[in-house]
Fold this protein.
Amino acid sequence: MQLIPKVTILDGAQMRRVVRRMAGEILEHTGGSADLILVGIRTRGVPLAEALARELEQMEGRQVPIGSLDITLYRDDLSTIGPHPVVRSSHIPGPVDGRVLVLCDDVLYTGRTVRAALDALRDYGRPRRVELAVLIDRGHRELPVQADIVGRRVPTSTQEEIRVSFEATDGVDKVEILGREEPA
Amino acid sequence: MKLLVRGGRLVDPAAGRDGRFDVLIEGGVVASVAAEIAPPAGCEVVDATGLVVTPGLIDMHVHLREPGHEYKETIRTGTAAAAAGGFTSVACMANTAPVNDERAVTEFIVTEAARHGFARVHPVGAISKGMAGEELTEMGEMAAAGAVAFSDDGRPVVDTELMRRALLYAQHFGRPILQHAQDLFLSGNGVMHEGEWSTRLGLPGIPGLAEEVMVARDLLLLAETGGRYHVMHLSTARCLELVREGKRRGLGVTCEVTPHHLLLTDQAVADTTFSTNVKMNPPLRSEADRQALLAGLADGTVDALASDHAPHHADEKDVEFSAAPFGIVGLETMVSLGLDRLVRPGVIGLGRFVELLTAGPARILGLETGTLAPGRPGDLTLLALDREVTVDPATFRSKGRNTPFAGWKLRGAPVGTILGGVPVRLP
Amino acid sequence: MNAESWHRKDLLGIADLSPEEIRLILDTAESFREVAERPIKKVPTLRGKTVINLFFESSTRTRSSFEIAEKRLSADNMNFSTSGSALEKGESLVDTALNLEAMSPDLVVIRHRAPGVPHLLAARLRSGVINAGDGAHEHPTQALLDAFTIRRHKGRLDGLTVTIVGDIEHSRVVRSNIHLLTKMGSRVRVAGPRTMLPPALEALGVEVHTELEPAIAGADVVMMLRIQLERMNRKLFPSSREYFQRFALTRERLGAAREDAIVMHPGPMNRGVEIASDVADGPQSVILEQVAAGVAVRMAVLYLLSGVREEEG
């Protein structure tokens, strides 16, 4: 099924404003904590974490450490899909015990990725607190997971997809809804 | 009892015949061979129009496994396989249990074979008692009971002195010594040919030298002892060269090769992913060896084709490669393999192919069969050169199913045998 | 072959693999290496999967390495080894296979002294089969962990010169390494006493040497093989003393290799036979890293194979 772009939800300028607001909320929630770590969920959560870190650096004048987390090994559908997806490395800067982690992902949908990410984080230690920041919350949760910081809530149908592009990885900042090609 | 085989193309190399001839058999022996014979009164007629008629084919190297290993094969199933494969005579090796190393065993085999009547069975007696390689057997007694040759096949005669005595002693009875040539020190625990493929597969190898060293030794002995010496299942180029050289010097040396050594190489072990049906002794050799054997077949160095029919129970072969016994069945595939892969591509002519299965082995074993002349046994084989067959072990008469040729599509097949003037009918 | 996913039910040898498949395993192993650095070195990936370790030949290292890899992936594992099991009581291999099949494991790891046994099992079992060494034939995970270690140090495999020294004839490690390294573009030299070189080695795409020094000269990697002392009766070489004199890797001899050459050994080592202690423990030795790499590589193999169901294999 070929999906085609139907609506642009955020263009470049809008997306940067949303990210800046999210960074502000992170500061607010964590009280400017010095032990903050941003952890991007691979793959599209990583450029979001990086964008948030840039904003935080501008606001606070200091660098926030960034990690990346591959959740493949924690997926709950490995026994039903095949062949197994490619596993990529995770990188968490330093020990996480006692620190405040903000998990970052581009889209919050069923909640299963976040569940897997929380399981994965547990193998790195015991953070003091974990928050979830997502650029888009599109609804349709299958697990009791909610984000603490949301860029934009977008009602979607399950037939649709959200495509998030980042300047760093895709050359442009943009969020689109993809849908089926309507018969002419 | 009279039988007329009429209308076929008779190929009888020993008699110098290849053409349209009828054969009349009376009282079990050939009465006449002529361009056209009118059927006498009360004569059964076999219409061989469109078929090739040959003297009954001889496989001079088979294992019938009886007595002792009846779960692998019996004289009944083995001779039925021979008849199905176009053979009227087989020579069976002595490595039974008990070993055919005395008259009683030889007589048992002859009697048992006669009872079933599917093919003539010529026992080969052991050279040494129990095939232990130590003491000579009573060759005279066995010869009198029907042993046509002597061999410890399956085991080489390692003891040089014993070999020398055997070559000398067998001459009293006009019998040849058939050697399974293998230097056991060189072959060691090898399970396939030593070469590129054993190196790739990490399997212990049996070098061609193992065979060559033994044949070279035996030919030195033969030059001094005289007598007749036959290399069984000859498998390497250099070994063939030794035999060629021996013949040139006038030694009483002959040799046989098998279809598998002519058609397959050691690469088959890799190609079949360690199939135990390509494990035999001597092992499948290199392509260079194979080409040399094909040349030896054409230039007359090779005296006979033989199958080394070695049936094993399926359970024995259904194991890891190194643990499997050596050997494959061959009685029911040899003729079609030869017609399709040797005669059809022109490696050898039909006449030469028939010679290798008739006059060749008959000369080595001193048999009356192998050619059709008045007074000779009325044994014939009928071949259909254009019949297409697919090798299907499930249809074998043999109890053994261990063949590497399963699934091969071949053109040319035996369609019947006549034994002493009686068409053989398999139940 | 799509390099982004794995489609084989079994890992029987390196000879069958494409360079893309080899690269996929090595890349996946890189990800698993990171798991060993976490405070909790266990992931739930193979929860509910059963792996049987079937060792017909004793092997402490390979078996422990597989066991750790399986446990870190949360698989349930069972060990069968020759002592005290039906394997010793003359049960045929095929019967063993059928019995295993009845327990429906997801993967079977097998070590056997006879070449081709993993292939025989793979043809009979629905489960995936991993060859953990079949006689002198193949030992694919060893070659993979060696390549993984080389790549970490040299950043690549192509264009390297790798010298392997020892009893080439009886080594499965050599065969798997030759296949892997030549596929990935390395130049492979093998060296050993003439009595330990099998025929037609050149056909495998390697340079064959019978003296140590020219074999080592300019090498990026020097891999020493274990000399099987128990084979000494088998007419291969007269004594370990004479072997050491001619073929052991000493500090002086290593000087012929590139300055940044690494020294490898699949273990277990015979110090003072094939390798001098100061080399084994020296700065160029990566022998212990190989052991660590073994766990990551085996995790990668277990992970990739467990994603393939029979119909795809």
